[in-house]
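Hi there,

I know you've been waiting on this one. I reran it after we fixed the sequence typo, so this is the corrected version. Both the input and the resulting structure follow.
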Amino acid sequence: MKRRQLLGVALAAISGAATAQTIPTNKPPLLQVWKDPNCGCCGDWVKHLQSNGFLVQVIDTGNVAARKRLGMPDALGSCHTARVGGYVIEGHVPAADILRLLREKPDALGLAVPGMPIGSPGMDGPEYKGRRDPYDVLLVSRGGATRVFQSHRT
């Protein structure tokens, strides 16, 4: 090979490597979840997230300290607290709503589903016999104010 051809091959290889490194990958979002190790509905919510493309890291130490550290108001509390993409997720928030949050990127602390509404992800097992209570997913501001992000009324 001539010197000019070698230089072209080397530049193409370098260019290709640089391009591969700068093209964003569609890696699934990593979601950290703090929960009680014995909570079944929390485990079911984690399975819901995993089946919807999230990578989930479970921290089985309970969630009260994490909720406080992450700034989620106790009044919006539930049985698990999570963090993803710089947002706090409290309670049985559907994966589709979390993905919407990550896509729209509002200036907010995160999302919350206070309590444990039957029919929400993780609270929808066979023991509930198909029951689905209406509930709202709340967008929580950094100051703690809320507004409805998504209503679930099926």
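Quick highlight: Confidence is low (pLDDT under 50) at residues 3-24.

Best,
R. S.
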